[in-house]
């Protein structure tokens, strides 16, 4: 059985990350959370999503253990922020050149992860 990463592919994952951050950096609810070097943020997100979706362990090999909740604790993340993040992810996924059923599968990888980041 193929992983989500294998079905999506590295090129489409890069496109997803680019699409996502184009939306995030303009979103009034969450853009303040992404004010540092956007290229570095994208690189880390690409590494994380590669590993999270069943691809190579790029995040662990290049940055360390993901421990995403711990890494996000310094940032105030509310339910409203989580919803905005998920909206951006949904829109970014919708732009991908993949089957509609797979878009649904891909999106459903994220709600539980996003909920886990809420800390305020």
Description of the molecule:
The protein has one domain: Globins (Globin-like, Orthogonal Bundle). The chain is 63% helix and 0% strand. It is built from 8 helices and no strands. Helix 2 (10-24) packs across helix 6 (79-94). The longest helix is centred in the last third of the chain and has 16 residues, at 79-94. The mean pLDDT is 95.
Essential attributes:
120 residues; mainly alpha; Globin-like; 8 helices
Largest sheet, described in full?
Answer: none
* The CATH top-level class label: Mainly Alpha
> What is the CATH topology descriptor?
Globin-like
Q: Radius of gyration over alpha carbons?
A: 14 Å
Number of helices, where a helix is a run of at least 4 consecutive DSSP H or I residues: 8
Q: Give the termini distance in whole angstroms.
A: 38 Å
Mean pLDDT: 95
Q: What is the tally of beta strands?
A: 0
Describe the global form: globular
The figure for the number of domains is 1
**Strand-residue fraction?**
under 5%
Portion of residues within helices: 55-70%
List the helices and strands and how they pair.
Layout: H1 4-8, H2 10-24, H3 38-52, H4 58-62, H5 68-72, H6 79-94, H7 100-107, H8 111-117
Helix pairs in contact: 2-3, 2-6, 6-7, 6-8
Short summary:
This protein has 120 residues and is an all-alpha fold. It is 63% helix and 0% strand. It has a single domain, classed as Globin-like.
């Amino acid at each position: 059985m193929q992983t989500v990463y294998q079905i999506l592919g590295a090129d489409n994952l890069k496109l997803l990350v680019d699409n996502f951050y184009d939306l995030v950096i303009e979103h009034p609810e969450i853009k303040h959370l992404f004010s540092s070097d956007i290229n570095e943020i994208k690189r880390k997100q690409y590494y994380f999503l590669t590993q999270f979706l069943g691809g190579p362990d790029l995040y662990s090999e290049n940055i360390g253990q993901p421990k995403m909740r711990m890494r996000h604790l310094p940032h105030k993340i509310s339910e409203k922020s989580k919803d905005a993040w998920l909206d951006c992810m949904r829109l970014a996924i919708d732009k991908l050149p993949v089957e509609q059923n797979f878009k649904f599968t891909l999106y459903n990888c994220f709600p539980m992860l996003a909920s886990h980041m809420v800390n305020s």
